[in-house]
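Open question from group meeting: does this chain pack into something compact, or does most of it stay loose? Before anyone orders reagents, we agreed to write out a predicted structure and look at it together. Recording both the input and the output here so the notebook holds the full record.
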Amino acid sequence: MKRDVAVIILYDSKKRILLQSKKENQWQYFGGGIQNGESPENAVKREAIEELGYNLRDSKLIAKIPMRGRYEGHMDVFVEKYDGSKINLMEGKKLRWFDQKQTDKLNMSEHDKEALKRFFDHVG
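Structure tokens returned:
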């Protein structure tokens, strides 16, 4: 099945990233499917509100990554520095901040791991 998605990598001043777990011990970004006629930018803004109650203000596209497996398509990866606003987990089981060293050991999909690499290359 073809499905394009848009995700946000929120990061803090220590370059830690916020991830969610929907299944035990599997971590992923916040985001989801791009609806018909919707731009990736609007999709990621909508998903951030739906999943976190968080309004993106200055997200930047850093990568378009092919996805393989259950869904075929691509993932638009956006980043934004977290502004300290309140976050409410509205989907998933839990959320947590991770630094780069901690992310090396996480159970993530291959395209999510590729997005991590691009993120850390982007922020230095």
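Observations to bring back to the group:
Residues 51 and 90 are 5 Å apart (CA to CA).
The chain has a mean pLDDT of 93.
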